[in-house]
Design goal:
Layout (H helix, E strand, L loop, with lengths): L14 H20 L5 H7 L11 H12 L1 H11 L1 H21 L3 H29 L2 H15 L1 H16 L2 H6 L2 H10 L17 H13 L1 H31 L6 H20 L2 H4 L1 H25 L6 H27 L6 H24 L7 H22 L15
Helix pairs in contact: 1-6, 1-7, 1-8, 1-10, 3-6, 3-17, 4-5, 4-6, 4-17, 5-6, 6-17, 7-13, 7-16, 8-13, 12-16, 12-17, 12-18, 13-16, 15-16, 15-18
Amino acid sequence: MSPAGGPLPPRRIGERELVFLLGAISATTALGIDMALPAFGEIRLGLGLAADSPRVALTVTLYFFGLAGAQMLYGPFTDRFGRKPVLYAGLALYTLGALGSALAPTFGFLIASRLIWGIGAAGPRALSLAIGRDLYEGDRLGRVLSTVAAVFMMVPAIAPLLGQAVLALGSWRWVMSAPMVLTVVLALWIIRLPESLPPQRRRPLTLGRTREAIVAVFSNKLTIGSALAVMFDMGSFFAFLGSSQLLFDDVYGRGDVFAFYFAAMSVFMGLVVFTGSRQVIRVGADRMIVTLMPVTVCLSVALALWSWQAGGQPWFFGWFAVIVVINAVRTFVNPLIQAQAMGPMGELAGTASAVIGTISLGGGAVLAMLIDRRIAGSVTPLVMAYAGYGAISLAFALWALRHRPTVASPDHSPAS
């Protein structure tokens, strides 16, 4: 039987392939960002911006706005029409946005295309979480989402290097067009993916039923508290993504090796997430959240004090090492919090993943914008955001866990 008690899907894939596929689907989001990071200098030059202009960070921020806002559309549609058709629609928009970015004649056209690109990326992001919840729950869902995150981290590890390699062969426009290759591969691979939402579990696409579903998501304290925890966590990480190349270049004079450091960080983060995911069921997601999140807050506060005392330019290798550790632990904990948020939402997985994504990614993008505009020749604003946003994220996570049902539902595994 399937997890929902309905008929088995016509095609079935093993858990390992499913995890890799969900990781690849999720990775479209990261590829749209990380591959472009080494091209920021070329974008400034090619579109007439100042050499140290922070405006280029808008290519990341607008992408995230599209990524967050569009999920509210994908959620009800995927609960009505199933996961796969909506996933294909998202990949099509993703490709359109990448093409527009590659052909952009002005900076305004570029960021408009990046917004469309983000709208397309919202589909794969929301659908990977919904498909995971269709097939799993409890600590098993946390383990699967953490493993998906580990696969996901392979893209940030290689994407900047790929971007650097493409830049060596062509212009920044080539870098923008390269992610379209992944959409073609995914479109073919998804043929093997079973439809995880059978017709008997789909919801009518009406204004009343959609409003009812959204209200149900917002009314659940575990879900909404977890979503807010993820939002503040994302706020500091998005600020890092948008400003990291500028900090490497402007503060430390290491812009030429940025892609290699970013790749090393991503590899380390992936290893931490993969190692931690193997322990989720044994230790429990709750215990990992309440143990590891305070550690990242303490490290962030210490880093903020050090940066303030060093005039905004602490020793590079020490600063980078602590940032990497914080990012690694947060990247591991984040899927566990998302799994907690999705736990009560079995019948509303598509809408719930959309609401969670809108809150966490949209709110995170706004929080990142507040930091991006203050970063100029100093790492202090960034690390202060890590400390402040991290503390608020911890508070929401602990509040949400207080409202978790005392008796967990049995774990689900995919149909086989």
